């Protein structure tokens, strides 16, 4: 297991809303061509870049030994910062037009950089205004281009909710959410694929967690169409990227508590999601997950929804309900920890290999 994925074993520096002691000297706009964003973003007229979906990330290369961001945050967001593929630090972002150091203490040579939003949109929307480097520093485009892209649509499991929690009885804290430890990003890493996460804790396909009605007003079938998770219903331009595969993991919240949706209501909502994906992405493979955390025996609901589509490129994978150990595989609030997420990924990866024709390798699933 590599140290940059086992984050709790790494010495992490968390910085919040604190201006740098020494100002950087070169400013580069957030939308510079040397910076590659993956996920749903919006470029502002002044060149700033705004986003809120969990897992959104940017990649570039830099020189000069240090890098800061001029950034605005509506709430609080946490970011994983990877330098040359290794976790450099976790940064806590809050405040308006704040200058925050993301990288320091490295040599002035060329380094690869990935900055990943590890927390959900409901906790904060981020706008990056500028990158600031030493006067001798610069940004250069990352030459490596991935040829695969997986889009994940889901709930708290896809987000990595509580993944860094020490035990199942620990309450949720924002700093323990880490999408980089989720089955979704583990799966994408294994296949060396780009990914986008359209995920929101507590949301379902037809009913959200704890709702008083069987059919909620706004679920993931609505959210999946939006540029932002929260604060705006602006519709996403689906021509901006085209995934090779969509993985849907929903249902845990739909059936968590009474009143549970009727079979007909679930089928109607789930098939609507599938039809929306067909409309926007064409005939790409779609993998529907019947997750090990679905609390009710409703597998037939999923079968009926998939059968109703009569589409040979829509697949259904049933994960065993006893897949996770209910102590050692759980983090905060009874959600999977990294070990639990690895087990989920180990079940999903072979199936994706089959339906996509992506060969399995000897690499570790991490």
TrEMBL record:
The keyword Cell division does not apply. GO terms for molecular function: carboxylic ester hydrolase activity. Pfam families: CE2_N, Lipase_GDSL_2. The keyword Lyase does not apply. It comes from Bacteroides stercorirosoris. This is Lysophospholipase L1. InterPro entries: CE2_N, CtCE2-like_dom, PCW_deacetylase/CE, SGNH_hydro, SGNH_hydro_sf. Keywords: Signal. Residues 37-143 form the Carbohydrate esterase 2 N-terminal domain. Residues 1-23 form the signal peptide. Residues 152-342 form the SGNH hydrolase-type esterase domain.
């Amino acid at each position: 297991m590599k140290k940059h994925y086992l984050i709790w074993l790494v010495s992490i520096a968390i910085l919040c809303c604190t201006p740098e002691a020494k100002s950087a000297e070169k400013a580069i706009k957030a939308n510079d061509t040397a910076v590659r964003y993956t996920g749903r973003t919006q470029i502002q007229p002044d060149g700033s870049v705004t986003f809120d979906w969990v897992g959104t990330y940017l990649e570039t290369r830099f020189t000069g030994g240090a890098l800061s961001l001029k950034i605005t945050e509506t709430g609080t967001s946490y970011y994983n910062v990877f330098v040359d593929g290794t976790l450099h630090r976790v940064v806590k972002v809050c405040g308006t037009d704040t200058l925050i150091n993301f990288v320091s203490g490295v040599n002035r040579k060329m380094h690869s950089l990935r900055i990943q939003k590890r927390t959900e949109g409901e906790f904060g929307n981020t706008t990056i205004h500028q990158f600031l480097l030493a006067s001798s520093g610069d940004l250069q485009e990352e030459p490596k281009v991935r040829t695969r892209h997986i889009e994940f649509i889901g709930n708290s499991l896809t987000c990595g909710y509580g993944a860094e929690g020490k035990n199942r009885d620990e309450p949720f804290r924002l700093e323990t959410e880490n999408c980089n430890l989720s089955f979704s990003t583990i799966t994408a890493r294994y296949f060396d694929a780009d990914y986008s996460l359209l995920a929101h804790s507590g949301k379902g396909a037809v009913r959200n967690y704890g709702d008083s009605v069987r059919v909620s007003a706004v679920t993931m079938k609505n959210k999946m169409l939006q540029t932002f998770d929260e604060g705006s219903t602006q519709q996403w331009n689906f021509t901006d990227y085209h995934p090779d595969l969509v993985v849907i993991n929903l249902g845990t919240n739909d059936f968590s508590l009474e009143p549970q949706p009727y079979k007909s209501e679930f089928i109607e909502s789930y098939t609507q999601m599938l039809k929306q994906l067909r409309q926007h992405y064409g005939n790409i493979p779609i993998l529907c997950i019947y997750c090990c955390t679905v609390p009710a025996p409703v597998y037939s609901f999923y079968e009926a929804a998939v059968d109703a589509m009569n589409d040979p490129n829509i697949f259904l994978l049933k994960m065993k309900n006893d897949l996770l150990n209910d102590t050692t595989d759980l983090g905060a609030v009874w959600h999977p920890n990294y070990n639990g997420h690895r087990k989920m990924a180990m079940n999903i990866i072979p199936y994706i290999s089959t339906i996509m024709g992506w060969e399995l390798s000897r690499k570790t699933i991490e």
